[in-house]
Amino acid sequence: MTADRGKRWRVVHHVVGALLVFAWIVAAAFQVRSTGPEYGFDAENVPPPATDAAARSYGIYYQDRKIGFSESWREELAGGGARFFDRVYWQFKAQRSVQRLAMESETDVDQRWQLVSFATRIDAGLAKISARAVVRGETLEVELTTAGQTRRESYPLAGPVLVPALLRSYVAARDPAPGSALRLDVYNPLLRGAEPIEVLVEERTADGWRIAEIMRGSIKTTAWIDRSGTTLREESFMGFRMESEPREQAMALPEDAESIPDLVFAAAVPVDGDIDDPQRVRRLVLRLSGTDLSSFAALDGGRQTRRGGDVTVEAPPYPDRAPYLLPLDLAGASAELIEALQPEALVQADDPKIVRLATRVVGAERDPARAAARLSEWVHSRLRKESSVGVPSAVEVLAVMAGDCNEHTVLFTALARAIGVPTRMAAGIVYADPEGSGAAMYYHAWPEVWLGSWVAIDPTFGQLPADATHVRFILGGLERQVDILRLIGTLRVSVRQLERDDGRAARRHPGAATAPAGEEEGP
After folding, report:
1. Phi first, then psi: what are they for 119, rounded to 5°?
2. Would you give the distance in Å from CA 153 to the centre of its chain?
3. What does the pLDDT look like over 308-337, one tens digit per residue?
4. Nearest residue to 58 via CA among 246, 225, 222, 230
5. pTM of the complete model
6. pLDDT (tens digit per residue) in 14-55
7. Which long-range contacts (CB under 8 A, 24 or more apart) does 162-165 make?
């Protein structure tokens, strides 16, 4: 299968949109909540202001352009503890399509500021997800609802839980001295466990402190907080910032669509060198620079090889047959393959509708290579190519039958796992040339299937296999893909060598001969 130029660029996006949403969820401890129709709080309608007079309002900006607002307030609970409310509304462009996103949460904590329960909601137009959770002893019980279906799961807790939304209040209560550092284990519900966040106290201000919060080693947020831990100002990745403003000012959003920034194009990775006919590229050598590559283990393995800052991607022909038949014999399967068959909270491979559809599409076919090809063609041809932000869910995608690379990937993964084909999700960059925006590498997601070895395919583009311009940085879902945010604004790419499947000779980029591919030290 191949993809024409127009179709390719229209759908090569929204890893960025989804990851921005995910990062905000992690930072604010949102999961997703349905508060009922009294608020009318959804992506297509700007919500009314909070009814609580003590609510603090914020304007949200990308660089100097307003893209949304946030507000938060708290109530004291009888018997001690408190309830925190948060609401966020965004509007931005993703490949010229205006996207709107509404999020809100309600979090209860006890007298020690430890988590008791939370209930939250995300409405991103095509993607609507809600969840509730409560701590019972040493267990967190979660209900996740999407497409009208509720999934219940329980996760063990190693100890009392500090949630991200209360981190700044916790820091302020310690009255930290400038220069001090704290390493806090903060519960991330999307990871079902604690995640360390380093807090550096950079300065004592007239109102309180300026602190830096560092997640996953390099994803940094700078915040100005008062003596109660309330946020006054915040600056984060890609030039996002949040300013405390009067409510009327905070909620005033631009009406001119032309003034709304396009975050997908803003996050594009510059490329030094041309890659014409990208769908026909079968071997590509790229030099990656501007960022530390050492923590991206998925750059090396399978069809990719990394030596220093050079990455070679090879896309051999898609196999006619696999060396096993369905169902896969799990008795001799590795832990990696068993994991790649499991249902997940948002990859519901055991959902009856998913199982019935996968079985119908595949029919009597027992060869996994041919079965995966049928599923890929079905997903590619049936899903409408539409912009979407938020956290994709396979059953939600099946209900709306639309989306971009995230939706194509999560639905294919659920369908393939449902019939016993080990499948994992990958994310990285891919080459595209959007009209009016210039050629670049764009952040993208696609699946890999086990056919005796891991084979990358792309149901969004309709490719078997995915061409060699697909450069994998991450393996796993959004909880792992959020690390891609560390690359935005820093990663640079230059073409060293490429080969196509039409027999044309390899082409070297000017300057490639100065050092053999991969001989340089480090990125």
Report:
1. -150, 125
2. 22
3. 999 999 999 999 999 999 988 888 889 999
4. 246
5. 0.82
6. 455 555 555 544 444 333 222 333 334 466 666 555 556 578
7. 162/113, 162/114, 162/115, 162/186, 162/187, 163/29, 163/107, 163/109, 163/115, 163/118, 163/187, 164/26, 164/27, 164/28, 164/29, 164/188, 164/197, 165/28, 165/29, 165/84, 165/86, 165/105, 165/107
